[in-house]
């Protein structure tokens, strides 16, 4: 079995699942896209579900791995949150189709796949929550519901898959700076002395 | 034609599109759900696409209408942004299935429906951007890319459809307060005098 051919099939599936949706894409569509007979395609994959699972698994595992590295870095928590936002946005912008399949299509997975992806997604939220918690413990961030704050930040960053234009005027870096600035300091001017940490 | 029966069909379609996805739901599934023969269902609707369009149109139009009312209110822009966040989150939390159909399934619409929904969605983003722009003009909000800031805030609020639990511990009001606090003032403590508006 050729690893290259398998990768070509996975890339075709990403394109088709993003464009038409998982349910509207047939195994025949995928076979046509890579120039194979449907019977030959089954030498490489056992089912359409297997492809969706591999795509979703690769995508969410990559997000987790990158964020784990950031958490282990020796920088302050402002910087850590900035890097988390920048890395997530850079990955979404560079992998729009794959991220769309993860975020829009993975709900179609059957068990046990659905639970595996859900656990990896929960793990990703846990990592974001940990950055906020550690920032609170370090006296850099304000106290409050860290999981809810992580969901706000992660939601904003995930939503990029809906509006980011690969050929648009804004780079992932420019978007990251504006987003991180909002999450860290908000859109409003602050009242003098209104938000100083207790000493 | 009974308006009640039509409404019952629309509610069944919302449930099925949310649970199985639009493509995986057949007209037969919808007929079964409301206890009609498939032929009789076609007395009420012309197609599955028509149902998806009506659901998406009703949902996004409601978001627009509510935000237009908030924009016209005589309050400051902090308060306006808070109310926009609170209203959006309250509507998503109270209409999780319908919002999921709008945000996850409407990409399956064909033309001219796709363009109509896209224009109403663009209009909604314009309204959020306007709140930020007017807050900047009033000296309440910091200058910057207002559309990008609106996309961050709206993305975070939209993402609720993915994680909000109707029977969970957090009310829409509690979530709104945490979210609006992040968008207005950020998660970090601010350096004394670091973010005072220029006078």
From TrEMBL, chains A, B:
<dbReference type="InterPro" id="IPR036271">
    <property type="entry name" value="Tet_transcr_reg_TetR-rel_C_sf"/>
</dbReference>
<dbReference type="GO" id="GO:0003700">
    <property type="term" value="F:DNA-binding transcription factor activity"/>
</dbReference>
<protein>
    <submittedName>
        <fullName>TetR family transcriptional regulator</fullName>
    </submittedName>
</protein>
<feature type="DNA-binding region" description="H-T-H motif">
    <location>
        <begin position="26"/>
        <end position="45"/>
    </location>
</feature>
<dbReference type="InterPro" id="IPR050109">
    <property type="entry name" value="HTH-type_TetR-like_transc_reg"/>
</dbReference>
<dbReference type="GO" id="GO:0000976">
    <property type="term" value="F:transcription cis-regulatory region binding"/>
</dbReference>
<keyword id="KW-0804">Transcription</keyword>
<dbReference type="InterPro" id="IPR009057">
    <property type="entry name" value="Homeodomain-like_sf"/>
</dbReference>
<dbReference type="InterPro" id="IPR041490">
    <property type="entry name" value="KstR2_TetR_C"/>
</dbReference>
<dbReference type="Pfam" id="PF17932">
    <property type="entry name" value="TetR_C_24"/>
</dbReference>
<keyword id="KW-0238">DNA-binding</keyword>
<dbReference type="Pfam" id="PF00440">
    <property type="entry name" value="TetR_N"/>
</dbReference>
<dbReference type="InterPro" id="IPR001647">
    <property type="entry name" value="HTH_TetR"/>
</dbReference>
<keyword id="KW-0678">Repressor</keyword>
<feature type="domain" description="HTH tetR-type">
    <location>
        <begin position="3"/>
        <end position="63"/>
    </location>
</feature>
<keyword id="KW-0805">Transcription regulation</keyword>
């Amino acid at each position: 079995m050729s690893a290259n051919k398998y990768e070509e099939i996975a890339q075709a599936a990403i394109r088709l699942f993003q464009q038409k949706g998982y349910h509207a894409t047939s195994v025949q569509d995928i076979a046509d896209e890579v120039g194979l007979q449907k019977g030959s395609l089954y030498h490489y994959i056992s089912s359409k579900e297997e492809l969706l699972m591999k795509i979703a698994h690769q995508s969410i595992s990559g997000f987790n791995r990158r964020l784990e590295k950031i958490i282990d870095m020796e920088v302050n928590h402002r910087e850590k949150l900035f890097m988390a936002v920048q890395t997530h946005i850079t990955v979404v912008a560079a992998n729009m189709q794959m991220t769309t399949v993860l975020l829009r299509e993975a709900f179609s997975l059957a068990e046990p796949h659905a639970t595996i992806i859900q656990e990896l997604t929960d793990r990703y939220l846990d990592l974001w929550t940990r950055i906020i918690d550690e920032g609170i413990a370090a006296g850099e961030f304000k106290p409050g519901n860290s999981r809810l704050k992580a969901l706000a930040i992660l939601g904003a960053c995930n939503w990029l898959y809906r509006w980011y234009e690969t050929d648009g005027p804004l780079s992932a870096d420019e978007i990251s700076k504006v987003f991180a600035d909002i999450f860290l300091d908000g859109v409003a001017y602050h009242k003098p002395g209104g938000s100083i940490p207790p000493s």
